[in-house]
Amino acid sequence: MSADQAGRTPKGKMMGVKVYMLDDQVQTFNVPQKCQGVILYNEVSHRLQLLEADYFDLEYLDEKGICCWLDHEKPLLKQVSAKDPRFRFAVKFYTPDPGLLEEEYTRYLFALQVKRDLASGDIPCSENTAALLASYIVQAELGDFLEEEYVDHTYLSNFKFFKNQSEDLELKIMEYHQGHIGQSPAEADFNLLDTARKVELYGIRMHEAKDHEGVPLTLAVAHMGVLVFQNQTKINTFSWAKIRKLSFKRKKFLIKLHPEGYLVGYSKHSDTASKIPTGYYKDTVEFYFDTRNECKNFWKKCIEHHAFFRCHIVKKLPRNRTRVVSRGSSFRYSGRTQKQLVEYVRENYVKRPAFERSTSARSIASRSYGANKSNTSTLNSNYGHNSTSSGSHILEQSPKETRDTPSVASTRLVEKAEVHDDSSQSASAGSLSEKSPRSQRTKAAVDNTYDSPPSTNKQMVDRKMSAPVFSQLHHPEIEEHELSRSSEVGNIPEILEEDEERTRHPRFRSPAPDYQNISEVAEAMREEAGVRERPTFTTGVQPERSEPIISSPKENGHVSPLPSYSDALEIEQQRSQVQSVTTVTTTTTTSSQRYIQDDDEPEPLPPPPPEPLQEVNSVSPSVARATKKYPADRAYYIAKELLMTERTYKKDLEVLTVWFKDTWFRNAASKEDVWPETLMHLMFSHLDPLYEQHCQFLREVEQRLAFWEGKSNAHLNGEYRRIGDVMLNNMEVLQLYINYIEKHEEILNEIQNAQRTNRKFETIYKEFEGQKVCYLPLNTFLLKPAQRLLHYQLILTRLLSHYNNDHNDYRDCYEALQKVKEITSRFEDQVRHLENLQKLVELQRDLVGIDNLVQPIREFIREGCLQKLSRKGYQQRMFFLFSDMLVYTSRTATPTLQFKVHGQLPLRGMIVEENGSKMDVANSFAIYGGNRCLMVAASTQEEKDKWIEDLVEAILKAKEQGDEKIKFQSLKSNASSEGLDSSDLQDDQTAALSGGEKQIQHRANTTMHVCWHRNTSVSIHDHYVAIENQLSGYLLRKFKNSNGWQKLWVVFTNFCLFFYKTFQDDFPLASLPLLGYSVTTPAESDNIHKDYVFKLQFKNHVYFFRAESEYTFERWVETLSSATQSAKRTRLFERLESSQPPNMIYPQ
């Protein structure tokens, strides 16, 4: 259905349509009587805010009692009666892999459908399986099993899981329920779907028919093809790959097979097997229905299932209504295919607000959505089902499709989101405060830095907050933390009321769009990235629009103002004159605004802008600041880079020495023996002196830059236009760095031991990692001091390259560089070892199903996404290459979105084969390890080359190692888990999710998740390059729909850009992972007429940033290129120069 057709809403008389929802509620929709079915479908989707709407549809009973799906392209009144139109909202396409469902809400709706099917008997299964399914329903609705409350099975008597529910079944359900302790409702839903999908009749709807000899059969259609049943037993399957054409003629349903034929025999277990010839080939199979309408209805369902699961894209062919004599049905599937839906969701995904879960399962399916036949339609059957008595549909195949599986798995999946907004995790009143522990001692430093009115408490935000059910009911010890990070309830308009006195203040009557963009950088960037909030369906009166003066809801319920307008915008001036500009206003408001938390005290002014910039936005001249002249010396900008990165380094140290220590102090005050005293003493006895010395060094650098910029008469003396002496004086801190690096591995090991032996410490540790101030994994902050020395070395090297030998700053810089080099060269191998250890620890946390990943001799080499061939076709898998093994995983659909290990291959004896005859996918190659063979495909030729090169090099090194070094005991099961039964998979997942991991939202900007979404890979070499290229400073970001520029504090680290309002913010407002992006200068078509602008682009996501000087511009482009453009290395085996045949076999 085109957007044009979907958007047309005919005018005229309205009618009320009742829709029975999956939670058994009845909702009424007012639609025009003459509208097409797609109008009603869109209304339902919008009200539910469904992103993955194509899995669902509306069904109804026709006058003959046949259950039909809504035809989107047919008028509504040609399908149901206008007297009492009723529909039921239901799952239409049962996906075989619940992991493909991105949204928790979609999985929740699927779970409701499974509950309904279980209660109605549509999922026949054994008692054990039925009890297990019911136990997940109980876990999702009631939470953990409580022995003091649930004394016996009678607490289940209010639930109606099955038609014939006995006490024995309830006892089994209770037994399974006891084993689900710790699972959140979302995890219980996923486990319910994962168990249900393994039931043979999951999603199967039977249709009675007969074969050509009159033998009673039942037909069904599913994701794999057309199924034939006899007495509830499947006796045949016609897969999509073998079907050439589907058609019907009156009551006869025909399946035309490909010329090579298809085996049309029934099972030997069939009661009528003796009547039916077996083992013969036939190119057309016929079945007969009782009526033409039943035949056509099943044919339409087959057409839709084939299009959704099998096709890459469906051609939009308009229905021909001009023919006098019809040549058959013109029905075609009009929605998205599963491949299109997966790509659409990953490009347009945005975190859904918390939704209210229904408890309707206790009385599910208690009433019928259908009407009596006397009250339904008076239309004849031909009118209700089109006028044709026959139809056909040729099943087109993709050129690359040669297997019997849905093609959605054979295509790579694109990114999920471009910008990850942390601002949506605003804390509500009374929740756990994230106010800085150092606020009292820093208040004086930031007080009265600009003229602005004090904060008032009269601003109100009409916004409801909700917390996960499990954190309220069963986890009181973390309830406050969970509440502070909960999502906001959808469909609640944000009403901002501002104090009347503040409204009259001239400094706060600035243009609304600027305030909106300053406080909503994440929302603006999400909009550009194509990740928008879905529209909210409303039926009431829209609130009156007003000029939004954005403020921030604080943890204590108070609201503080934003900085003044002149401080929020970067004021530019051309070299010749100052432009006069006008004020621009707007009244646009959105129903999906996000709020950014501000500090309680006013923030100091950011550093003044450089000289060669022009005015950013529309501001009255009375507000503009006077232009300041800056030194043009390149050494000044190198020193300024030192200052900017030192400010970020200070914030990173404070995560450990202020925030993490404060958590320790609060725990000590509670007199709970949770934190190991040895660990705390070991950590802070080395970090605290470093932090104190660094603060002193930062003050000296700030003072020197202030003199250099001419903020005092000291600039008249040239001795202040240098930085080498300040750095040389700071070299006494090197001994503190030596002590810390020597103890770093011991600190990391103590943390790991404490997490293994002290469950309470592990919980608090992971809860701290979930706070917004900890924007990277905590172990990453422990590495920052060792990495800082490398940056000092780079700064001093650049200064020496710029200076002449006779420069007054040359000697100090040279001496300081020699001292830093001595330390960096001395500890180079140890630092590399620590970085590898930190990476292994991070992977150990995020991989489910593997133990003891951290080994002394194991080295990380590469992680990335490849397509792996399985029974379902090529499916996306995440691969991890280590020095001794290759591990492949798939992402789970749990809230933490961890990766479940499916198998591993040892590198000893491994063979890599390229361009085999069996491979029909571009950029594919084979990996042979032991008695296993993996057929994989990379996204590009370059990715393939990287994997093959690293695999070959790792195989050669593993071959050189002795057998005593080969340890292969880390995986819980050496065999691939893709072939295990359901109980094994379930036990592994339950065990993996029973810890504290499920309480912490996953960090979507880590390299693992970014590689998954963008189908790329990262090597340890790339990590080393990224460590040497960390940068921070102020940049101007161009607004999408205007010529304005917004000033942001930007930090680049770990392949990701983090955005702040100022360098004093405690946590980022948004983040932008850069893997896969390109860094270029704007093209002429971009219409950017400014200097020092660079362009970031990934597919259709484009951002423009502006630096303050030529040096800063070069540094940002150089640094970002290190993350966005992977190093292109020469292949160890160059195909063009090799004398080997095309089918190359690498070392074994």
UniProtKB/TrEMBL annotation:
Q: How does it sit in the membrane?
A: Peripheral membrane protein
Location comes to: Cell membrane; Cell projection, Dendrite; Cell projection, Dendritic spine; Cell projection, Filopodium
Q: Which residues form a coiled coil?
A: 737-771
Q: Gene3D superfamilies recorded for this chain?
A: 1.20.80.10, Dbl homology (DH) domain (1.20.900.10), Phosphatidylinositol 3-kinase Catalytic Subunit, Chain A, domain 1 (3.10.20.90), Pleckstrin-homology domain (PH domain)/Phosphotyrosine-binding domain (PTB) (2.30.29.30)
Primary subcellular site in the record, as a coarse category? membrane
* Ranges annotated as biased composition (Basic and acidic residues): 413-423, 526-535
Listed A to Z, the keywords are: Cell membrane, Cell projection, Coiled coil, Cytoplasm, Developmental protein, Guanine-nucleotide releasing factor, Membrane, Repeat, Synapse, Synaptosome
Cellular component terms per the entry's GO annotation: cytosol; dendritic spine; filopodium; plasma membrane
Domain of life assignment: Eukaryota
Q: Where in the sequence does UniProt note compositional bias of the Low complexity kind?
A: 424-434, 574-594
The family database entries (Pfam families) matched by this protein are listed as: FA, FERM_C, FERM_M, FERM_N, PH, RhoGEF
Q: Where is this region: Disordered?
A: 360-462, 526-625, 975-994
Q: Does the keyword Cytoplasm apply?
A: yes
Q: Does the keyword Cytoplasm apply?
A: yes
Q: Where is the composition biased (Polar residues)?
A: 369-392, 449-459
GO molecular function of the protein, one example? guanyl-nucleotide exchange factor activity
Instruction: Write down what this protein is called.
Output: FERM, ARHGEF and pleckstrin domain-containing protein 1
